[in-house]
């Protein structure tokens, strides 16, 4: 159940009760594609850096180790030793982004595994069965993520099919949740709004799926090549047409700046591989902008990654030492930078919630954007 605690214009401060604990929103979900954060980050680490929700990938876990194996091991929470909420995406985005050859029909999609090329079929029922085997807290409905730019006629047909797939996803999950041997009988379902960059299609779809009274609603098909301005435009027109008494999730977003702008437009949930991926390459976020620790100017820098930061990396190590670890190709370099970046994101969300609690979010947002741009440390190539 989602409780809207307060608003500041369209920005929302909420609380979402789930079978695996309460989520304070707005929230950033830490992405652990294969039930692990890349960079040697453990479930215990996630608690230390303030992670509320972990996100795993249906498609990848179906391929390895296999959702049936995870089920036999007691479900994803027990498997990865994480007792807080987990959201699993439907696998739809990976089908459309990774598969070089795919065949879309009303039943679902036939495509080839990116691992061994074997043929795989996935539709709404298959996606729900996989996610039920994983026993995540929140399951995502199976949808088609449309490539941008896309012709209006194709987008209209695709969105209509995504709506039909949502109905099938809901019916199948209801059936699975009622089964005696289901691990998580209270698994929640989020539907996904699609429509490319066509405002009228987005609005019509939002109105249609809102009738289904789902546990939450996501906005998909953004952050896939369109400009930030286009994304904000779509959020401006779509968010008001989604249920205001349910959490709203912007999929695959994004930069700290994207998050602030989207919170201002009424978004509650975020996820993105950006902080972990950047960290694994030595690109770290600071209160003065992003820096690249591989640069020579950090060779003898005795400061932590970000002064005042309370993450495990900043409390114990210098920029100089972490740069040395990267140059020596030591795994610890990746671990420390991923920990720092995820802490940075989780702390940003905590600060956003505090600002909303104190009716000063707009001021907080403007100060942060100014801080990051004005005081940014130059990034050398």
Automatic annotation (TrEMBL):
Co-factor binding details: Binds 1 zinc ion per subunit.
SUPFAM superfamilies noted in UniProt: tRNA-guanine transglycosylase
Signal peptide start and end residues: none
Pathways involved: tRNA modification; tRNA-queuosine biosynthesis
Ligand binding (Zn(2+)): 309, 311, 314, 340
Cofactors: Zn(2+)
Residue ranges of domain tRNA-guanine(15) transglycosylase-like in the record: 10-372
Keywords, comma-separated and alphabetical: Glycosyltransferase, Metal-binding, Queuosine biosynthesis, Transferase, tRNA processing, Zinc
Active site: 89, 271
Catalytic activity field: 7-aminomethyl-7-carbaguanine + guanosine(34) in tRNA = 7-aminomethyl-7-carbaguanosine(34) in tRNA + guanine
GO biological process: tRNA queuosine(34) biosynthetic process
Cited function: Catalyzes the base-exchange of a guanine (G) residue with the queuine precursor 7-aminomethyl-7-deazaguanine (PreQ1) at position 34 (anticodon wobble position) in tRNAs with GU(N) anticodons (tRNA-Asp, -Asn, -His and -Tyr). Catalysis occurs through a double-displacement mechanism. The nucleophile active site attacks the C1' of nucleotide 34 to detach the guanine base from the RNA, forming a covalent enzyme-RNA intermediate. The proton acceptor active site deprotonates the incoming PreQ1, allowing a nucleophilic attack on the C1' of the ribose to form the product.
Name recorded for this polypeptide: Queuine tRNA-ribosyltransferase
Gene of this entry: tgt
